[in-house]
Amino acid sequence: MSTAELHTLTGAYALHALPDDERLAFERHLADCPSCAQEVAELASTAARLGRAMTETPPERMKAEVLRRITTERQEGPLTVRQGRVRGRYGRAATRFALAACLAAAAAFGGIAVWQHQVARDAQQQAQAAQQQSQALAAVLAAPDAKAATGKVGAGASATVVVSRSRDQAAFVASNMPAPPAGKVYQIWFNDAGTMRSAGLMDPAASTGAVLLNGPVGKASGMGITVEPSGGSPAPTSDPVALMEFPA
Amino acid sequence: MKEAVHVQGAPAPGPDGLQELIGRVARGDQEAFGRVYDLVSGPVLGLVRSVLRDPAQSEEVAQEVLVEVWRTAARYQPARGSGMTWVLTLAHRRAVDRVRSAQASADREQKAALLDRTPAYDEVSEQVEARLEREQVRRCLRTLTELQRQSVTLAYYRGLAYREVAELLSVPLGTVKTRMRDGLIRLRDCLGVGA
């Protein structure tokens, strides 16, 4: 199921119209997608209004019966965070994709709430720069022709690249990237038919977040990431940890 | 005859009052549970019955829901929505589970026959007492497109899964999913619902 499709499930989820497997997948997505969770809360509340409109007067005996039953019913404790995020067999892998998926979905729907949070944190340190980047990033993610592709980065992390051909810009969203080795940084490259063109460095402090690729997309067919010495390199000096094709 | 019904409909319980009561129920307060029962039992029974139809089975499921409210009150998270939304979400889930388990053994033709009938909200709403609430919901349902309305009501009032709704309406699965979402969004805006 595509990431954009996942986001459209908020309605079916609020109506309990999903089969169990899709419901569980969506709930995992929900745990990492605050904008989806907000929408679900509103739609569940809307669905409850459909229910309230059906109000009937229960028979008198029902109250006595229920009050009798609860006296022998043990109450459960509150949910802890761990219990609240029960994961299935595919849970871990799914989680890694979840944030990127959420961002991609947000991009597809023109929503910008999620990564704004990340950008807002950056802004505490680099207000101006972050604001400029956030605006440029917002423009890419919200572009009508924005398309997303998701792939693996190294051993476990996942990443989504969002490309807007009309703006000639691309954004890269990483999730759970391992920190680069000491004294090293991740450098992003445009792939111009096998020639790598620098598209900037990732903030070594952030393992999860969105960055705008420096420079125009041009004829680049994809992007790559390498580990480079601090400050970056004019050309890659190591094998890429990831190569991703841009969406067609 | 003058309509006296308007004042008869139970006013919406203050969400804060219900929320506080559920908090007391979570700590084992049986008296608070009695008051929660008074606030939610009518909506719970009505909702379950709109899905299940059968009166005896509806009462049985409604009781299970109310006992579940007692049992899991500590799991209610006010940040996620009002107490009424929480209770009615439990109720709908239970009713749908009951429908699905019964449906597993039922004929598929039976489902096809459902479409020939008037939508459930029209039939059932004739029996309900909360007239103002009902009128508002009906008015807002009319602002939906036919496909949005059918998608939302077949899922909610019949407890059908989206695949079944798609089959009944002869539209692609993706269309049903989006109609459920944009239908509910339109309904949310019409009813002025917050989270």
TrEMBL record, chain A:
It is a single-pass membrane protein. The keyword Repressor does not apply. The chain crosses the membrane at residues 97-115. GO terms for cellular component: plasma membrane. GO terms for biological process: regulation of translation. Residues 6-38 form the Anti-sigma-K factor RskA N-terminal domain. This is Regulator of SigK. It comes from Streptomyces finlayi.
Automatic annotation (TrEMBL), chain B:
NCBIfam families: PRK09646.1, sigma70-ECF. Residues 134-187 form the RNA polymerase sigma factor 70 region 4 type domain. The keyword Transcription applies. InterPro entries: RNA_pol_sigma-70-like, RNA_pol_sigma-70_dom, RNA_pol_sigma70_r2, RNA_pol_sigma70_r4_t2, RNA_pol_sigma_r2, RNA_pol_sigma_r3/r4-like, WH-like_DNA-bd_sf. This is RNA polymerase sigma factor SigK. It comes from Streptomyces finlayi. One of its GO terms (biological process) is DNA-templated transcription initiation. Transmembrane segments: none annotated. Residues 42-103 form the RNA polymerase sigma-70 region domain. Coiled coil: none annotated. Keywords: Sigma factor, Transcription, Transcription regulation. GO terms for molecular function: DNA binding; sigma factor activity. Pfam families: Sigma70_r2 (PF04542), Sigma70_r4_2 (PF08281). Belongs to the sigma-70 factor family. ECF subfamily.
